[in-house]
Amino acid sequence: MKKNKKSINYGKWGYLFILPFFIIYLIFSLIPLVDTVRYSFFEYFRSGIKEIGPNFIGMANYISLLKSDMFKYGANTLILWLIGFVPQIVVALVLAAWFTDARLKIRGKQFFKVVIYLPNLIMASAFALLFFTMFSTNGPINSILMSLGWIKDPIDFMGSVVGTRSLIGFMNFLMWFGNTTIMLMAAVMGISMDIFEASDLDGCNSIQRFYYITLPLIRPILAYTLITSIIGGLQMFDVPQILTNGQGNPDRTSMTLIMFLNSHLKSKNYGMAGALSVYLFIISGILCFIVYRMTNDNDPDGSKKAAKKRAKEERRRLRR
């Protein structure tokens, strides 16, 4: 008689190892998320020492936000994100193309990678405090410009709309362009060298190779970069908060949506804060979906397009 061998099921150990993640996610993410959505339908705030609510008021918080300055702060957030992201993606693409081009034979690539990534390791709060000190009216930038004789009076960089927004955008650019460059370099290095060699044999120059080979093949990473940047832009808080002392000066032109959300949390208005959080979630989802649809290529080899063209020509021929 054959003895029945006892089978060992290793699958249960996998579930056991991932169980802590689901427990932590449930406690610290899912339950607070559900509570945030629930509180958005309630009147729940503190007036002095008196606590009001929670009283169910339906969609009143959402309607109140539509009548507030939420759209103005949303426009501020978009402008600040564009000021930082546009030069970030342009510089990152150029640096990624340069560092991965074997024909240029750039020396010290590892050193340059470390240098451009270093600002990403600095805390945003420390970065904002550094710029606040450097560009203040009594800061070193004004002192240098006055000693060179370029200006007579100190410039109030943070007293103008252009100056404040430019500083915030420049800081976001410095902090994140290194991370974007490293990701795009990894994407370009994942392209087969045979494709580049074939393009060289066909007589493609550097610009043609970049636009017709590199960009289409790194489209998934570009989509990922854009989506994560949009989410990060909507969550912009620490740099403008510290640089403007939480006021969004001048005239609240640098007040972001998360700063607006933080003001509701400071005033203990949890209902309005929850409604604004839901709005942010919906906006993030819509923008990410639009970006995904714009950057996702369902027909990389052009076969679907060619099939549609043949079908269209066949219908025309049958009509004749």
Task: Describe the structure concisely for a colleague.
This protein is mainly alpha-helical and 320 residues long. The chain has 14 helices and two strands; from the N terminus they run H-E-E-H-H-H-H-H-H-H-H-H-H-H-H-H.
The protein's oligomeric status is single chain
The first-to-last residue Cα distance is 78 Å
Identify the CATH class of one domain: Mainly Alpha
Helix content: 55-70%
Number of strands: 2
Question: What's the arrangement of secondary structure elements?
Answer:
Elements: H1 11-39, E1 42-47, E2 50-56, H2 60-66, H3 70-99, H4 109-121, H5 124-134, H6 140-147, H7 161-189, H8 193-201, H9 206-217, H10 219-234, H11 238-243, H12 257-266, H13 270-295, H14 303-319
Helix pairs in contact: 1-13, 2-13, 3-7, 3-10, 4-7, 5-7, 10-13, 12-13
Structural notes for this entry:
It is found in: Cell membrane. This protein has 14 helices and two strands; from the N terminus they run αββααααααααααααα. With 320 residues, the protein is mainly alpha-helical. The protein has a domain at 68-255: Orthogonal Bundle (MetI-like fold), CATH 1.10.3720.10. A two-stranded antiparallel sheet has the order 1-2. Strand 1 and strand 2 (50-56) form a beta hairpin. The longest helix has 30 residues, at 70-99. The radius of gyration is 27 Å and the shape is globular.
